[in-house]
Amino acid sequence: MIEDNAGDVLLIQQILSEATAPIKVRVARDGEQALQILAKPDLIILDLNIPKGPGLDLLARCKPTRPVVVFSSSSNPTEIQRALEPGVREFVHKPVDFEEFAKVVRKMIRDWANPEINSATCG
After folding, report:
1. Per-residue pLDDT at 22 exceeds 70
2. 68 DSSP β-pair partners
3. Cα four-point dihedral sign 75, 79, 81, 86
4. In Å, how far are 53, 54, 76, 84 from 109, measured between CA atoms?
5. In whole angstroms, what is the distance from residue 28 CA to residue 18 CA?
6. Cα 5 to Cα 47: distance, rounded to the nearest angstrom
7. What residue ranges do the domains of the chain occupy?
8. Mean pLDDT of the chain, nearest integer
């Protein structure tokens, strides 16, 4: 997960801890940290507005071949379109309501975190 908001990180970790299958979460809080952990994830959950290398810049530099889901509070249509161009599988707007937040996090994991289908690395 590439996310600088500690509250969102905590919520996502709490939601994933309730999953029936164990899910290991690695967190990068900025673009520099993200480049260090992107080598072998099954799924990348990316916030666009992170320090030290905004999400769109990170995608352009890294060109991940693993599934990337942008999970952002942005509602800017241009930013959303730009985020989808580098191969992002889905753009998910961060809900404000906790129940809806949990629902979309579970859906992202269910839809995209399948290590047998997803292979390759970020170079």
Report:
1. yes
2. 44
3. negative
4. 25, 23, 24, 18
5. 21
6. 9
7. 6-112
8. 81
Q: What is the DSSP letter of 68?
A: E
Q: What is the pLDDT of residue 13?
A: 87
CATH 3.40.50.2300 fits 6-112, yes or no: yes
At residue 15's C-alpha, the angle toward residues 63 and 62, to 5°, is 10
Residue range 63-79, pLDDT digits in tens:
777 788 999 988 889 88
Beta bridge partners of 33: none
CA distances from 80 to 90, 91, 107, 121 (A): 10, 7, 19, 24
pTM higher than 0.70 for the full model?
Answer: no
Question: Residue 114: which pLDDT band, with cuts at 50, 70 and 90?
Answer: low
CA distance 9 to 29: 9
Is the Cβ–Cβ distance between 106 and 82 less than 8 Å? Answer: no
